[in-house]
Amino acid sequence: MEKGIAIAGTIAVDYIKTIDQYPEKGMLGNILSSSRGVGGCVTNTLCDLAKMDPTIPLYAYGGIGDDENGDFVVRVLKEHDINTDGIVRFPGEMTAFTDVMTLVATGERTFFNAKGANKIYSYSDLDFDSLEVDLFHIGYAFLMDPFDREDEEYGTVMARALARVQSMGIRTSMDLVSVENERYSEIVKPSLRYCNYFIVNEIEAGKTVNLSPYGPDGSIDEVRIRKICELILEAGVKDMVVIHAPLGGWAMTNTGEFYFAPSLKLPQNYIKGTVGAGDAFCAGMLYGIYKEMPVKEALEIACMTAACSLSEYDSISGMKTIDEIKSIYGKFRV
Ligand SMILES: Nc1ncnc2c1ncn2[C@@H]1O[C@H](COP(=O)(O)OP(=O)(O)O)[C@@H](O)[C@H]1O
Ligand SMILES: [Mg+2]
């Protein structure tokens, strides 16, 4: 592969606040620090990829508002040499933003999200004809209302979009968010048939096929993870399903091969914030796929890129070049 990677979908700004405690409703918690960074699938995953390997051509597709946060996002993407021609600005609309409340002691976070322009960015805003890449990744389902809508022919607009990209000879990939939605499985399933790769966390994978990844004691059950992978492949994912969780990453290919790579054994107090760590895992996995690495190696890289992200409060500043990643994180391998 050499034509690059396009990522479409959620573009956002994160206001990352570290707090001393999560207050009860009506009570007060203290903000210990506050900063602004980029957020969302498009912005996080692309900036991570750019930092890993600046030679890969990268393209952003999505919607923003005509506000200062929109200027900020475009500026950061351009600083990373990411093509922003596919970004549409909607007059009078906000750029999506998230208040990320991170508990200082544990790094656990709670999100308050404003969908902003991601609410209106739609199929007709995506300039399919301009796509000249090897890989197309889209995320997140459940945060892009016009793509979650029903489509008579394909089931959902997201599925229609993925089908169109695949018909152009481009391999497709999708990510989701963990939300409560009665129709979770119904909304995801039509897209699976048009995904080459499906890279999600354990909660999202479970919800996709209505099977919990956890055993009776509440910990991840690998037998269930395997079953979930099989069901997702049966539902139509063409090449590979990848599931990540704090424990590590699993992958199953269309030939039924199943792999696991454990998360790194990180020093105490290493984790500053988990925001963007899933996107960083995705970036590592997409990198491995793009570079045609063996699956096990790609999973290991993905666990390392997730670890990079955990080293900083924001989504992208912990990311490093692929050579640095291999030399620094190799020693934390289990
Ligand atoms: N304590 C941890 N140790 C190792 N990896 C972690 C840890 N916490 C989070 N991660 C990584 O970050 C991922 C979080 O992804 P996800 O829940 O999708 O969040 P998001 O996409 O919002 O960043 C996990 O699946 C795992 O890969
Ligand atoms: Mg995620």
Automatic annotation (TrEMBL):
GO terms for cellular component: cytosol. The keyword Transferase applies. The keyword Transferase applies. Residues 26-320 form the Carbohydrate kinase PfkB domain. One of its GO terms (molecular function) is kinase activity. It comes from the Bacteria. It holds the Pfam family PfkB. InterPro entries: PfkB_dom, Ribokinase-like. Keywords: Kinase, Transferase. Gene3D superfamilies: 3.40.1190.20. SUPFAM superfamilies: Ribokinase-like (SSF53613). This is Carbohydrate kinase PfkB domain-containing protein.
